[in-house]
Amino acid sequence: MIKKLLKLIKNRRGATLVELMVGMIIAAIVMGAASTIMAPMLRVFMHAGELSETNKLLDTVAALIIDDINRAETPTSINGNVITITTNVEVFEYYIDPTDNILMRRTVDRDTGNPVPNTNFPVFAEDFYRHKGLGVTYNTPNVDVSNNINGPFEFTLTIIGRDGPMTSRTYAVNPMGLR
User: Fold this and answer.
1) pLDDT reported for residue 149
2) Which of 54, 93, 102, 107 could disulfide-link to 116, CB 3.0 to 4.6 Å?
3) 3-state secondary structure (DSSP) of residue 28
4) What b/e sequence results for 47-69 when a residue is b if at least 16 CB atoms lie within 10 Å of its CB, and e otherwise?
5) Tell me, what's the pLDDT at 175?
6) How far apart are alpha carbons 114 and 111 in whole angstroms?
7) Domain boundaries, given as residue ranges, for the chain
8) What pLDDT was estimated at residue 112?
């Protein structure tokens, strides 16, 4: 009997359909367990990457605004959501476009205080905001927004995603011309 069984096993060339099915079921169970474990980790890594990217965006926007404020020859003015900066070369404003929450910059006529036509442009390309579904807001805590700023102050930038605010950072500014 054993000789017959050994002869059958020896002559066999491949796996049966049942053996293949059992192997596939075991592989599917192992892959399902692995994906269940990996999915939350992947979400954490993706969120960390997005957060890092938005923090870099905030730092870049803040660096632009702070650099311009530091070049100001007169006190920076904040009125509502408009930051007006006067340098020895130009007067310009940062403001938030209310329809898309896009941070914009425009040049202002020194004499009239009116925006100069065709000088509005987004701080970043509009495609960037739309592709990422992002917007930017800012506020200035502890600043009387109707007055000129005559010393150090803080402003907070917030990145807004499709689901609401994503991250905020507060930046301290001490304008050079006012030190």
Assistant:
1) 59
2) 107
3) helix
4) eeeeeeebeebbeebbeebbebb
5) 67
6) 8
7) 56-178
8) 85
End-to-end Cα separation, the chain, in angstroms: 102
Per-residue pLDDT tens digits for 78-98: 776 778 888 777 888 888 877
Beta-strand ranges (E) seen in the chain are 76-79, 82-86, 91-97, 102-108, 121-122, 135-139, 148-149, 153-161, 164-173
Tokens of 130: 């739309």
CA distance 115 to 110: 9
115: which 2 tokens? 């925006």
pLDDT at 29: 94
Tokens describing residue 51: 């957060």
Rounded average pLDDT over 143-170: 68
Q: Which residues, 6 or more positions from 53, have their beta carbon under 8 angstroms from its beta carbon? A: none
Map residue 82 onto helix, strand or coil.
strand
